[in-house]
Each structure stands twice: as C-alpha cells, then as structure tokens.
Amino acid sequence: MHLDVIDLRNFYYRTGLGRAAQRAICAQVLALWPEAQGQTVAGFGFALPLLRPYLPRARRVIALMPGQQGVMPWPVAEPNLSVLCEETTWPLQTGHVDKLVVIHGLEASEHPSALLEECWRVLGPGGRALFIVPNRAGMWSRGDSTPFGFGRPYSLRQLESQLKLHDFVPERHVAALFQPPSRRRFWLRWGPIWERIARKLPITVAGGVLIVEASKKVYARTGSGTPEAVRRPLRVLEGMNAPEGKPALGRDIW
Known about the structure:
Rossmann fold; 7-stranded mixed β-sheet; 8 helices; 7 strands; globular
C-alpha cells in the first residue's frame, strides 16, 4: 500500500523527525554514491530528498512516482523533473539509467517482482541501484507514526535473496535511522551523534532502514554471434562401402 504523496511530503519537509530521517539516509546514500558526474540518475517512490544532491552535475535527474501514491512538482521554482507513472511501466528507455534509488517503493508495491523487473530493465550495463526498505528488526517498522511503518519490512537476507532472484548482484549494504522514531526534542537534538555511534552495532538489530546497493547482472553471449562458413563440409555416409558398379553416395553428395 503506497502512502499519499502529501503525507510523505509533510513528513520529510514539515516535521523535525522527517528532516532528521532525511539527513541520516541522505548521508549514507552520499557515502555510497558521492557523485554522478554526467550520469542519468532516477528515483522511484518518494526519492526527492535523496536526488537533490545530484542535480548540479548529473546529466539528467528524474523522479518517478507511482500512480497509487500521486505526484508533486519538483524541484520547487525550477523546471519540473517529476513524473507520474505506472508502478511497473516507466516512461524510460531500456538501459538508460546509470543510478537508481528506490525508497517507499518496493515495500509498498503490490507487484514487487514486476517492479524489480522494471528496475532491471531501465538500468544500463554497469548500472547500480540502491534499494532502501524498512528493517523488519528495527524500531521504525513497528509503528505507523512514520512512513517506514507501512508496507512490507525486510530483513537483509530477504532483500538480498529477492534481488538475486531478479538478476541483481548485491554489492554493499549499510543501515540508517539508528535514533528512535520519537518526536521528542531530546532525541532530535542528539540524533546525529547517535547515528554516528550506532553504525558500529550489528545491522540486523540497529538500523531502522536497510540500504542495499546492487548491480545489474548481464549475461555474456555464447559464441561469436555471427555465422561462419563451413570450411570443410561434413561428408555424410563417408567411409561406407557403395554397391559394386555404383559411385559412393557420400563422395558425390556435395
């Protein structure tokens, strides 16, 4: 079940807890992908806060938002880069995307397999994707006061297994949102410090969200792919004795 785009916007841009979550996740994304010079970067779900750092240098940035969620203009006061699309049919060319960020998308999808197939389709050779999902062992997935309490939470093993089934190769994983999902001033004030300290804890019991970087598996072609002339034709029936008085069939067949 996708949340409404208005609820997501209000959480990330109009609440202290949402802004804290935005900073924590964005810091981890930038640690994995510090730049995207000349690349095409796409986001699916509600990836706006994570796409903004790539606007100055990326060749193209596009925010894909599913119809069940709704869409909002973005970025503000600039040419619009967001588009409403079908969850499993994106208006992008095959192999066109270099970097893809999926957040509030996979766990909310009614057709996760078809969604992953679409992610694989739009990525180019060597393309990378970040899948950001609620951690089923974390505190953020246990209540509905934040967007991470909706949809289907994952364990790291479950997410990586799902990606492998759809021809992705998990490369790296990190976690974020170690601070409690509390709107109290104490936790909001000490949240950044808690994030830095708690990153040393086991990922399966600490982070509120899991972030898995995966590459697109491309199968190598077998053979040269071009037909070749047969230099020495096969002599059918060669070596068999022909009836007396008749030529050997195998010697005259070609």
